[in-house]
Design brief:
By secondary structure, the chain is mainly α. It has helices spanning about 5-20, 30-50, 55-80, 90-95.
């Protein structure tokens, strides 16, 4: 194989690997509804875990990450980056500081 052919193969490989990446979720009908329902179910589990002092911290972190993943799938399928509720930690991170510069 000559050098030109190797370059063409490398370029094709890079194109194939980059075309099938994150965010390429195509769901319609019942599949989209199932993803949205799973996201909301995981949000409810996150809220219940946060309210229960007996739930260990590692479990709370797992529930939060699980919700973020489901919400990400639903947002990608809907093509809407604002879909779904935000976790309290996300809301607190976006809140402007009180008494900030004007």
């Amino acid at each position: 194989m000559n050098g030109c052919m190797k370059i063409v193969l490398v370029v094709l490989l890079v194109l194939v690997l980059n075309s099938a990446g994150c965010g390429n979720v195509y769901l319609h009908g019942e599949a989209a509804t199932a993803v949205e329902t799973s996201a909301m179910d995981s949000y409810l589990a996150t809220q219940k875990a946060a309210a229960d002092p007996a739930v260990p911290d590692w479990s709370k972190a797992y529930f939060e990450e699980n919700f973020r993943q489901w919400r990400s799938f639903a947002r990608s399928a809907r093509r809407d980056t604002n879909w779904g509720p935000k976790l309290p930690s996300e809301v607190a991170a976006q809140a402007p500081a009180a008494g900030g510069a004007q």
